[in-house]
Every structure is written in C-alpha cells, then in structure tokens.
Amino acid sequence: MMHVKKEISPADLAFDIDGVVADTMAMFVTLARERYGLVHLTKDHIACYDLHRCLNLDSGIVNDLICLTLDDEHTLQTPPVPGAPKVLNELARHGPLRFVTARIWPESITQWLHATLPDVPFDRIEVIATGAPESKLQILKNMDIKFFVEDRLETCKLLAQGGVQPLLFDQPWNRTPQAESFPRVQSWSQLSEWVLP
C-alpha cells in the first residue's frame, strides 16, 4: 500500500462526494431495511461497486433502491461520512472546497453540502456534476487538481493513468488486491494529517 507524506496543499485537492463525504450506502442500507425488510443487510455486504453483482437481490429491487437513495428527498437525509464535516470546515479556511461527482444533477447534493457545512460560505463550495465517472479526469485536469479523494477503484485507475493522484477512500467495495497501488485513506482524520497545514 502506498503512503502519502504530509505535503498535499488544500489548493491541489478535490473530492468525490458519494462514499467519500456523503455516506450514501448507509442511506441505501436504511432504505433496504425500511422498504424491503432486508434487516440483515449492512454496508459490509456491499463488497463491490456494482450493486447488482454483489447483492443477492432482485434486479428491480436494486434499481428501486438506487433511485430512492439518489432522489432529492433521500439525498438531503443522507448522513455525512464520520469526520468529513469537521475536516472540510477546517480546509475551507484555506480556500474553496471543490467537489466532482458522477451524479447527473448537482442541485440536491449541493444543497446537502450547504446543509452539512453551514459554517462554510456558499462561494467556498464548488460542485461539478459530470454524469459519468469517466468524465472526471478531464474536469480535474482543467481545474489543475493534483490529488482527488475517490472511493471507486476504476475511477482511481483512470485518474492515475491521466496524471491525477487518486487517494482511495476506504470502503468495503474497494478492499481488493488491485487497490494496493493507491494510497488508502482510512478516515477523514488521517486525510487531515496529510493535508491540513
């Protein structure tokens, strides 16, 4: 596993949102329990990014849960990943916070960020929705971002090939041998040790 020395400037850093800042899979699991009675399901069951592949559930149920999880109502109810608000509040004192998400529409997740980070001025939060993970690389390069915190392994590979250093945020779905070539962020407190001045 690669390690990062404390040499990342906040100005060189951007973040994915789902699975990094927003605990989106926690909302998915909550909805699976409430709507379909899947009380046994936990985030640890989500051992791969493709939910159809790693959950032994009817495809229609998975699709319904994904749509519910990402709709405006449930986006606004999603809990933050532990530690994220505290570190982002500190980082915002050093410059704007930049987020690049594969969501199609940025409005509800931007509203969620403002609600989650009420002490951060509106003009210090920038959200770009790409509509597809594969579109992140060019946007990050255009923004002159050197480090990107991401939970999807395939996106990390793409970024690394394109010259952006991915920081893989630890989640059950990215604990595979292929992930060993990327620095793994175990928690937001660890990330703060690498980044905060």
UniProtKB/TrEMBL annotation:
GO biological process: deoxyribonucleotide catabolic process
InterPro entries to which the protein is assigned, alphabetical: 5'(3')-deoxyribonucleotidase, 5_3-deoxyribonucleotidase-like, HAD-like_sf, HAD_sf
Gene3D superfamilies, per database record: HAD superfamily/HAD-like (3.40.50.1000)
GO molecular function terms listed in the Swiss-Prot or TrEMBL record: 5'-nucleotidase activity
Family per record: Belongs to the 5'(3')-deoxyribonucleotidase family.
PANTHER family per record: NUCLEOTIDASE YQFW-RELATED
Protein name (Swiss-Prot/TrEMBL): Haloacid dehalogenase
Organism: Desulforhabdus amnigena
